[in-house]
Amino acid sequence: MISVPNHLLLLNGNNGLERKMGLTMNQSVVYLLLVVLSSVLVTVLSLEPVDAQTVPSLSQNQELLSLYEQGLDSVIIQQYSSPVTDAEYYYLASSYVRLGQYNQALILLSTLINASNSEQSLWWSAEASLAQSRLLFYLGNYASALEQAFDLSTCYTSTPDQKRRASMFLDDILEFLSSSSLAQLFTNHYPFELKASILEELMYVIPYELANTFYSELQQLALASGESKNRTLSRIERQLSTPIQYRSRYNPSKQFGAPDGFHYRLGVLLPTYSLEDARYAVVQDLYKGMSFAAEEFNANTPDAKMFLIYKSTTDTLSAVKQIDTEYSEGEHFAHTQISSLVIGDRVNAIIGPLFSNEAPLYAPLAEKFEIPLFLPLANADSLDLHNNYMFQVNPSFSSQGAILARYAVETLGYDTLGILAEKGSLGEAAAHSFLRESERLGAFVAYDFIENLEERGYGITDFTQYFTTDTLDSVTIIDAVYVPFTGTIAQTLIESLLTDLVAMQSTIDILGSEEWGAVNINSTRLPETDVYFSRGYAVDTTQTKTRQFTTSYEIRFGSSPTNFSYIGYDVAHYVMRELYAVKNAKALKNRIKTSSPYKGHAFTIDFRNTHINSSVFIQHIPSLSTQNEDK
Asked: What is the rounded CA–CA span in Å between residue 631 and residue 625?
């Protein structure tokens, strides 16, 4: 049986947790509805209105207002499922908005807009229109959101406060949008004042020639609409009057902003397993860590909210369905999931998929849809596709090999090294990278054994004999040997190596892969041998921040966090941090490569102008002699 992890369903239910976290499992955007609603709004605003509004008293809705202020959205939805008054329609719609259930909110707001048959209803209608404008903005319908906010800011039936808030939201939209989006919007048939505001936002972020072309078009519109003496037009004219000065200030990298209360939507691609499968707990813990990060973000960020949108990478129908397409079943399913997240759920970025064999199906789609994709665990070197939108959080084996080589030469001072790795294994890429980086730094690699060990029955004595430190033997004495053993055979190879070194009474040090972290080395067997090994992530439970996280996690979920809980939290927290900082997700991929390192509980994340995390943990198992020196 294949099932979605229980907590995914629980956190999406009406249990009060959604007000903290904002999780939705599957939504689709009804674009036809948006078009209809926009048309309805234009019709409403064009009706002959009353001259003034009456701001309604909420004295009759104290219970509803109290529930809303406490964030009890699920209670409001249950108790006011059949709204009667304007206030009930508005706050029920607002509760749906806070839960990310936009379609239900749009239907309620549309009803409220159409019901403007009194002075008080007119006030609620304007409030509903402003709320609807925000929803259109969240759904990426920027053209309609912009026009709607502008109409409200200039509509004489709106109160001064409503005009002010609509005008502020209009400015927020302009500040949020990229220069390419603004340039495209400028070509729409908008009123003069709105087009002037768009062009003013574009000054110095588009080339002079394009700005001048837009200005000429705006001038013609100003003459036709009697706005030739408009102040905004005059400011733009002054900015364009000196081409040299404009070009000196030209900078296409726009600084983005976002409206208060902005909704970010983070997609999550994880597999589903049966309860009996050991991997079920891995996925559970990863998602718990991500959801904990979302709850924390929402609790500590008053001007924004984060939603997690989950999709499975497990195609439960692949064995029985027939697909008439040029793509494989796996490619077709990946396309369905990505397009659903990007087009249907309007996510800003995606965490996942989980495994290296899944990633090649999704990586090209990230580039196609221009959506940043963060791989939390996949670290195979075959994923190094130079994809501008794919980011490996777990360092590749090549990265680990190169970083450990730098540590060995520059920090430990080794200048003569050896390598023993299994050909065809994941450790082969690490070995080649270690070799290149060591030699680049001036070290001498005396022995470079990258062999098919399976053909030899995994006997390695023919190679380990060169790792002696007996000066009477006719070998080059090395400082350390790099042995990146991986896979199920790793522990057997590690034990064979240790046995051979003990037999030779060798004192060389060992450099290895993360599999060495599971080895129980008796320091009395090799009293002079220090072991250093690399790993992509490591959790230090002695740190204060990690202990505090553990306590909060246990209170929240009733169980202790695992390594995968820390990993899920770190990846989600990192992406949320960067999204919040950059405001507009279109600029996320460029910011990721230049942002400061993130130091989490399990990962240190630093992409350094690449798409592979360059931070690797190097851990030390000290020799007996080193332990005695430290005393």
From this structure: 10
Q: Count other Cβ atoms within 10 Å, centred on residue 333.
A: 21
How confident is residue 509, by pLDDT bands cut at 50, 70 and 90?
A: very high
Query: CA–CA separation, 369 vs 87, rounded Å?
Result: 40
Q: Which range (31-35, 97-101, 226-230, 621-625) has the least confidence?
A: 31-35
Please, what is the Cα angle at 463 between 457 and 465, to 5 degrees?
A: 120
**Contact, 85 vs 154, CB < 8 A?**
no
| Model confidence at 38: pLDDT above 90 | no
Longest dimension (CA), the chain: 105
Q: What is the pTM of this model?
A: 0.79
Residue 347 structure tokens: 């996510």
593-611 burial, b at 16+ Cβ within 10 Å, e below that, comes to eebeebebbbbbbbbeeeb
Residue in the structure block whose two tokens are 């064979």? 496
CB-based contacts of 560, cutoff 8 Å, min separation 6:
550, 553, 554
* Two tokens, residue 7: 């907590």
Q: Where are the alpha helices (DSSP H) in 505-562?
A: 544-557
**Segment 596-612 mean pLDDT:** 91
Q: Which helix (H) or strand (E) holds 262?
A: strand 262-270
Bridge partners of 604?
599
- Per-residue exposure over 487-500, b if at least 16 CB sit within 10 Å of its own CB, e if not: eebbeebbebbbeb
